Amino acid sequence: MYSPISLTYSVNELEPYIDGETVMVHYGKHYMNYLNKLNEILSKYNFNFNIDKEFIFANIDQFNEEDREDILYNLGGVVNHELYFLNMDPAKNNIPMGSIKEAIDNKYGSYENFKKEFIKKAMEFRGSGYVFLVLNTNGELEIIALSNQDSPYNYGLIPIMAMDIWEHSYYLKHQNRKEDYFNDFFEVVNFSYINNLYEDEKM
Description:
Blueprint: H1 20-43, H2 53-58, H3 65-86, H4 98-108, H5 111-124, E1 129-135, E2 141-147, E3 158-164, H6 171-174, H7 178-188, H8 191-202
Antiparallel strand pairs: 1-2, 1-3
Helix pairs in contact: 1-3, 4-8, 5-7
């Protein structure tokens, strides 16, 4: 079985930006539900859970056709949530550093321009999903939005930053004030973690 990730912070440590009740419900119910369903389906295949989750996206045709949609949906729900939870932190690493700072400055001109583009993409998006910072097939940064639990891995893209824009990620605190949530997310985003992902992928 795939094990759940451990949060690197307590449920209340992202306050006042992300409230503890939301973190508790989001992690303990929504994320765990996707993980449990994924494990349940894969167990039917005597699946080797030592295989990286990302491998499944590129090899989905190894599973029976009637299970593929459910596998991809729940797999996306797992990996998207894991990136989201891990790329937040209360330690105020919310300013780009290292290689990711250079890449953001080169692509967007400044961090403030990048942040505006990221939030603009989220504000324009309709429905539930995520906004991602990805490495595209040319190894360049790109901001994309995907619906529901669709994953950048389905398109050969490598996600290094994710903001959940499903209502359950913000509604208890922010209600319909989505832009407030988007700005609050940037108060706790962890660019130390994001930079490490970026450097690992660029090696």
